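Quick question: what would this complex look like in 3D?
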Amino acid sequence: MAASSNLPSLKTAGSRHFQDNGFMVSKLRHVIESQQFTLPLLMDLFHRSRGMERVVARGGTLEYQDKILANLFYQPSTRTRFCFEAAMYRLGGKVLSTEQASAFSSEVAGEQVEDSIRIIAHYSDVIVVRHPQAGGAQRAAQVSSVPVINAGDGEGGQHPTQALLDLYTIYRERPLVGLSVAIIGELDRGRTARSLAYLLAKFDRVKIFFVAPPELQMKPDILTYLDEHGVRYELESDVDRVIGEADVIYQTRIRPERLRDEQGRKRYAIDPALLRKMKSDALIMHPLPRTVELDKAVDEDPRALYFRQAANGLYVRMALLTMLLDTE
Amino acid sequence: MAASSNLPSLKTAGSRHFQDNGFMVSKLRHVIESQQFTLPLLMDLFHRSRGMERVVARGGTLEYQDKILANLFYQPSTRTRFCFEAAMYRLGGKVLSTEQASAFSSEVAGEQVEDSIRIIAHYSDVIVVRHPQAGGAQRAAQVSSVPVINAGDGEGGQHPTQALLDLYTIYRERPLVGLSVAIIGELDRGRTARSLAYLLAKFDRVKIFFVAPPELQMKPDILTYLDEHGVRYELESDVDRVIGEADVIYQTRIRPERLRDEQGRKRYAIDPALLRKMKSDALIMHPLPRTVELDKAVDEDPRALYFRQAANGLYVRMALLTMLLDTE
Amino acid sequence: MAASSNLPSLKTAGSRHFQDNGFMVSKLRHVIESQQFTLPLLMDLFHRSRGMERVVARGGTLEYQDKILANLFYQPSTRTRFCFEAAMYRLGGKVLSTEQASAFSSEVAGEQVEDSIRIIAHYSDVIVVRHPQAGGAQRAAQVSSVPVINAGDGEGGQHPTQALLDLYTIYRERPLVGLSVAIIGELDRGRTARSLAYLLAKFDRVKIFFVAPPELQMKPDILTYLDEHGVRYELESDVDRVIGEADVIYQTRIRPERLRDEQGRKRYAIDPALLRKMKSDALIMHPLPRTVELDKAVDEDPRALYFRQAANGLYVRMALLTMLLDTE
């Protein structure tokens, strides 16, 4: 339940500065929160990601063949795990993998992520952590002698690499300045929605519509952050009222246990009827997996971008890995 | 429960034709059902498999080092999974692996194999699927941009690569034409038995004895197929009546939940007494794992071929992977 | 429950002898029990392990890139598994991995490790087994055509590679002859404690303090072995009485289910108060994971060696793998 705003800032803890071509840019040490990405870092990342599209098309590289990535997933997520592993493979590297690390930690009451990380850092060159508690990735980074990547930490935590690939997907299609984005779903506990909001706040004249039932709306820590950074946003409970204004429709899941009424959940769903109300060049995105909130009929719509979004995850994570593994 | 006969034919869906040395042969796109293997494809596969025996003896190859195989197993099967992964490694490639993918799909009600495949196809060059429902592999293939291999899809579905390695094992020992084969076990739901029957039907003058308790006998879809292809077969419930006639004894499991009476299950077991009734040059096969239906005392018999059968799985799967990964 | 003393001796079963530079040394075939390591073998192992520290610092080697290691873990242990896998990767090799193999064997009642090993030996060059029963690794070795490494077999079994890395950690810091070692914890079922005791017995003038509640003390099979080899030991239930005498304090877990009284468990814990009673140059070790028996406050003490111990696991396992994979 610890809000990420209680964490020490990663702008200092998670990066160090060095001179590069006359510019002061940040060298990434860990990837914990999306706030830590400055605009120069984002542009470096997106530039590298474009390059990775070409690298993959040529069959990958062997440049990182002496590097090992360790996936420490305390909660299973086959797609996110496969994406990081494929990214490491396309770079030539090796992978240590857990599908469900909590199986072994249940054996040992009091088992702490810190001890596991201290050990696994001796066996690998970069560690990807999915942890059930907000702040879990930060705890890991604080004791790790190798870079740590947050692959999701708890409800109400973050999932920064998802937000980075989301933003890259938009960047590939549209100027980021002046963008209007509707983020729909169970926003109070949505890691991807939270991480994306932090990133969008970096760009001028962005407007965000947070669309959710009032009891699942975005939490004050994010809204305060947006206020402080002068970002315009609206809280909305009716999809229809904003859907025609948004350049990007970012849909996320509403789990049945959070909104028991299925009709209620469907009121937030993207279906053929809602498609007709969207801008003709809107971008429809979803972090997947989906349930009822994204009708399969949408798949055929040329505005549907969510499978390309998943594909972009590979390039962005490859780029991130090179930024973490490259030592000057 | 959907019988595979309801599926669209893979003779067209699963392959495309091209000219090769003046012969019209099929290029494999997916491996879903054993019926899709024509005789020329089988001969190509077996020729390549022989070559792979030599490749492995020399320590493998690095030829496919830029390729990634993804194993998407919704049901665990360590041996089949290891066999595919070792095949990919001996070819020089990389592996994405799930031991039990259903752990994550339970998290998301309504999770569909199609969405997972669409995403994983961006992270890999070939996908191996084990799915709990008959037709699951075909559903995967229909949306995949990379080749899909069926590693078992449901009770009453198929397990074509098992049948291919079974047939290769026989081919290494004996002419396939005119063969007499006894297939024993829980045949109504036996994927390996079903897939093997389809393959045997391709060879002239084959005779199949289906040996099972009447309530577990082979289902009509297979028998109709054999009738249509002029293959001789007999349905038999007494092992003793056919065991002396068979060139190949293909034993499979009878699970206790299907035949509660242990004495009944043992009536179909291969034990030293039954060994004495077999032909002196019979081939004793089993897809493994085994329970009571195959006595450990049989392991020492020179006719026991089941561990070599498991070893052949490596060569046949290597050969299959090259057929799927090679682009003209 | 089967005591390992009932197993056939591995001095003959697990190794064969050959001439090397005029010396008769043992060629390792399997690693099952720590007793099988002669002094020359230990010295060879430690010499290779030192070399591996340099190999890793240089980014590893590709020398074993055609080799496959299979991890067959019937019980999960992320750290031990990752350590073996990282060792294989740093040597250039490939890895087949199970996080929890018992999931699939539960499917098949009567499933035997022997059948699995016979098959997996066709798919790999070395097999690492963690088995829930003492003697499980030995059973695996007896049928395997490739080397088998015991990564822990049951309560009351052994965990020889843990003991080897423990001893290597001491060897890097201190002469092994004349050493005084306190081994603390749930000793009757502690695999690591048992395996370490066997190894310490090889060195002259060693003295071992076994410190445990009387009902969890070391079992007679080990004590008899020490008596036969002239090794001095004391059974002690009070940590305070021996802590000031020991050169090495080897702490292990006491699980709540073995000693329900938490105050009782804490009586065996290493905490700041106990630190003050230790020798100023004592070595504090623990196989990890830890619970209450090793206070986190100890981590900052310069005598705390347990994370370096975990790091050494990589070098020792790399060295072991080369000893098993190198054919003359």
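Answer marked as accepted. DSSP finds 13 helices and eleven strands in chain C.
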